[in-house]
Amino acid sequence: MIVTRFAPSPTGRLHLGHAFSAVSGHARALESGGRFLLRIDDLDQGRSRPEFVDGIYEDMEWLGLHWDEPVLVQSQRTDDYGAALDRLRERGLVYACFCTRADIAQSMAAPHGDAAASYPGTCRPLHDNPERRAKTPHSWRLDSAKALEIAGLPSWTETDGGRFDADASQIGDVILARKDAPASYHLSCVVDDAASGVTMVVRGADLRPSTPTQRLLQVLLDLPEPTYRHHPLVTHKDGRRLAKRDLAPTLAAMREGGVDGIRLARDLLAEKLPLVSHFATSRAGP
Ligand code: GLU
Predict the structure, then answer these.
(1) Residues 32 and 21 both lie in one domain
(2) Which residues does the UniProt record annotate as the domain Glutamyl/glutaminyl-tRNA synthetase class Ib catalytic (predicted)?
């Protein structure tokens, strides 16, 4: 019995890529007689909006996708994330970081710096200083070197691709919490997937790079290991990926344009992607 979840962030209206994730996850769960869950990833309070939460429910309804209750709303679960962070802190696996975005950007701009590199660890050697923490905005980062020493390199299973071993370069000192965000995506995601009994994470291939870090956190927090299906992204006809900022056609616009949601869900399930991406292009607007 497979338990999957769809976990959109209510920072805009859903587009075809989201629909593909939701439809795929829903089908995997139902085929196995399992459960399909919905989670609202609204920890980014600066960008999350109640009207986008309503939009998620409307779009799911239109696609004919029903979910098992309860819906997990991340902004209501901050105690659980705090408890997970405490467990990591007690084991000396996190440190306070006082760097601003500008500090980090500057250190990354060093002549031999790799633009894609993760945080350089500037604050890692600092001793904990509660007084400074009380006065200065800071975040909490994973001490990835220590974490890897304890847990070893994580691995994971892709449902369509076998077993993968993470590479140490894929795991950095990621942020786990900030003053304005009680948990990062990585931390909240693993805590919630475990709390709701998710056994298969179905999401777009753009989130595959998150998997090594999330698997490491699962090992450190002693959480069960789900399998992963990172599905291909729905693209425009010219291969560009759909993105909210890119005026991708929203499901709401398609609905208003007279598209049948149930039929669209069926086409997505059959992975009729050329048809879908053609459709996307022809309705994409400017
Ligand atoms: N909330 C994330 C997003 O909308 C997805 C999280 C996940 O599926 O792991 O991109």
Answers:
(1) yes
(2) 2-250
How far does residue 110's CA lie from ligand 1's centre (Å)?
Answer: 32
pTM of the model: 0.89
Output phi, psi for 70, to 5 deg.
Answer: -85, 160
CATH code of the domain in which 37 resides? 3.40.50.620
Cis peptide bond N-terminal to 70, omega within 30? yes
For 120-138, write each residue's pLDDT tens digit: 899 998 888 889 999 999 9
Query: Last residue of some domain: 131, 162, 177?
Result: 177
Tell me the best of 52, 59, 189, 229 to mutate to test the pocket of ligand 1, counting ligand atoms within 8 Å of each CB and taking the most.
189
What H or E segment, with its residue span, contains residue 162?
Answer: strand 162-165
Neighbours of 112 (CB within 10 A): 4
**Cα–Cα distance, 264 to 258 (Å, whole number):** 11
What's the domain count of the chain? 2
